[in-house]
Amino acid sequence: MKNLFALAVLTATLPFATATAQAQTTTAAGSADEAAVKAVLSKYQQAVQKLDTTGTHRLFTANSQVFESGGVEGTYRHYAEHHLGPELKEFNAFTFSDYKAAVQVDGPYAFATETYTYTINLKKGPQDKEAKAPIVRRGVATSVLRKNAAGQWQIMSTHTSARTPRVKK
Fold first, then answer.
1. How far, in Å, CA of 105 to CA of 121, rounded?
2. According to a count of CB atoms within 10 Å of the terminal CB, is the N or C end of the chain lower?
């Protein structure tokens, strides 16, 4: 009778234990995927701060789409070659501060929202008598990433916009 009772208790609690283990596994996988997505975003941010886009195309899908402040920039490769790369050559420094990222993973897709302040220091041109004032902007980026067949997260679409920070009164 004791064995029958123990079997009944075990049978009754097994689905709950299995569900709990699956939830913990899902949460752990979700946390790992969230961390991996944040690492991709961080690698891109670090490249911009280094003023060097070398190798950053690997962070994006081949057919990625980049949207910046109301403009359609095309694929990341096009954006890096025709917009971002040439622009970075005009900068002495590009720094991010007040950075926050929120990531939601849903299967093989992830949705990220980043907020930050960036400061750009421009190079002094030959005609400039003094250095130009730094450009400070409050920015936001939303991105969609996809996990590829190799298990790597890549940015499919990103949209950034920025504005002059509001003066607190």
1. 35
2. C
pLDDT of 147 higher than 80: yes
Report the predicted TM-score, pTM, of the whole model to 2 decimal places.
0.80
pLDDT at 23: 42
Q: Around 31, how many Cα atoms within 13 Å sit in the side-chain half-sphere?
A: 6
Identity of the amino acid at 101: A
Can you tell me the distance from the alpha carbon of 46 to that of 55, in angstroms, rounded to the nearest whole number? 12
Residue 14: band (very low, low, confident or very high) from pLDDT cuts 50, 70, 90 = very low
Interacting residues of 120 by C-beta distance below 8 A, sequence separation 6+: 91, 93, 94, 134, 135, 136, 137
pLDDT tops 80 at residue 110? yes
Cα–Cα distance measured from residue 113 to residue 116, given in angstroms and rounded to the nearest whole number: 10
Q: How far apart are the first and last CA of the chain?
A: 77
Q: Return the structure tokens found at 88.
A: 């970075």
C-alpha 14 chain-centroid distance: 39
* Domains and their CATH numbers in the chain: 2-163 (3.10.450.50)
Distance CA 79, CA 135 (A): 21
